[in-house]
Batch of 4 targets.
Target 1
Amino acid sequence: MGAGQPVDAQQAPLSQDRFTRWVYERPFWGGLWLTLGGAWILVTMKASLKVVMHVGMQGVAGYLLPTLMILAGLLILFSPGQRLFYSIVGVLCSMGTWLTSNLGGFMVGLLLGVVGSILTFGWLPDQDPRVSRRDRRRSAQRAAQDGPAGDPGQPGSDAGTAQAGMATGTPQAAQ
């Protein structure tokens, strides 16, 4: 903060909440890992070891694939709607760097790219919060103690269910 600026206690949490919401609305960690994997491979391209194997004219593929990894990672971060396509491109480029760029940045960049692509591919935007096994077991026990939702003493409750099943085209077995 500058010397002449007042310190506002509300400003920091608002910006943190905005960034946190931005992170949770997209496959942030997958895109970040894919981008870091591509950057790592580009950095290791100038390694002094004689393990370098370039394919193409002047080693163009050695620079092209990590650049595409960085681009795919950034596109995942800023355009999460197309994450499946970008994650597939990312994993293919990551695997291609095994041959073109110092064995995939000495395996570090390759693994970062593959794991980032997998995280992106598996990310679900509208997933319900995870419920622990203990909470599911407790709710099942409570439901068993409360009994079934329908009143078993009412005649015809099973018949209505069977008729509804036949109307939708799915036959149900009679009990």
Target 2
Amino acid sequence: MSRAVATLVLSLLTAPAWAAAGELFCCTDPASGRRICADMLPQQCRGLAYRVFDRAGNPIRNVAAPLTPEQKAAAAAEAQRKKEEEEKRLEQRRIDQALLTTYATAEDIDLAQRKAEGDVQLTIQNATAKITELQKAQRKLAEEAEFYKRKAMPPELDTKLRTVGHEIRLQQELIQLKRKELEAVRTKYDNDRQRYFQLTGRSSAQPVEP
């Protein structure tokens, strides 16, 4: 038995109150460096780390000092970070599983990309053709409006000109949106293809093992 434990046991044997309680609470006074023990947590130990011993002087448990507000904030931030990392990991796992379920081969990704790009390009083509038609109508209306340079234009003609101009702008905006969508489609399938290769180690149309 060490000298410290022997001293503690001797203290227990000579202190009936501690023996009756069955537990001894001890901490180190930061001011004096002395050990303080009692059968209930001493006032000097509140807010400090302390140890609990049984009546034989054996350590039962260690109790850490309460966290400071800064430590609590840091612990909460760390817990939140780990939670977010776990959520990202699970989400990535779900996305990867969906990717492997959707594409049996790398060629499937190529086919899907061509179809998606084709749908967007078709919309662009239709909008371009629509603009061409609208511009023809606009030119005719503009020629008709030439007769009214020195007098009031008929309200109906003015309305038609405004409507055609508005429709042309709408189609032009649609084309701009679809061009951005086309770039997004290409980026998506490039990323899908790269991730597929990472997950399977395949770069050909070899089927994925079930």
Target 3
Amino acid sequence: MIRRRTRSATAARPRPSRHGRHGREGRSPVVRPPLPPLDTRAERFDLAVGTAAEFLRSAWEDLRDVRFEVGEMPEATDADGIPRWTVLPDQKRIILYRLPIERLSRPHREDELHRRMIIESCVFRAAAEYLDKDPWDLGPERFRFF
């Protein structure tokens, strides 16, 4: 004879649920999968400009008081092309424009390293224009062995 469970037997002793609706019950709201920190293109651009500017300030005494600023777009000009930066020696300011540098510069490889190299090269070229030097002359003596 087969014994069948009655409703009263199952109602008296509820089964513990091992899995929730999607098999994820038991997780606390504090635990989450490890995700990279959220950052934007503008934040990465600011970081690249800031690190390159600090490097140049530590290498060149003339750049210690210069402010490196980030602007979105330059004002409209009648010149050929869109400027990537503006150098204002009388105000001791260098303004780098994020959108022209990011959108109009074409790296030969689309990855984070090459995008950062383009940003840093623009910082070096703007600082070289401010100092009236060649961009290759801005590296300190310890990097001149190449």
Target 4
Amino acid sequence: MRALGFLFVAGLALILAIPCGAAVLALGAMLDPATSETLSRLGLVGLFTGLEDLASGIGPETLLFALAAIARALFVLLVVPPVLVAVLGAVLGWRAATWYGAGAGLLTALVPWLARGLTRTGPSADALVLEGRITAVLFLTGAASGLVYWLIAGRHAGAPSENGRA
């Protein structure tokens, strides 16, 4: 019965932690000028490309595929890291805030690097600085979601029961 209670609390914690990470990502993208410029440039390029494709006769299903790709990327950035950290923390009995905050933050920050094979996008130092700023925003995104999870459920992950039975 205790396990069902923990699963309920953990699910609720994830339901609250994921939107918190999304809010931090949106806030970081708005407040950091370099990240905001990069994301808006990519968004406008994608919008203009989509409009040109529609005008040239490519159907609207292309836009649906683009939206699906964006949704998949957001899922991988916002959902997968806190869920993995939560599962590992519960299985291994780790209850430290540093595990949930730093673990989810590092995993979220590493996602784009792992997706492209840990290579840099450009040879210039400016590109590396820009990547570092985006990586910092992603780290804060994951850390926020991990800490919200820890506040709700992580402090009790793997805690022994009062009567000594798990």
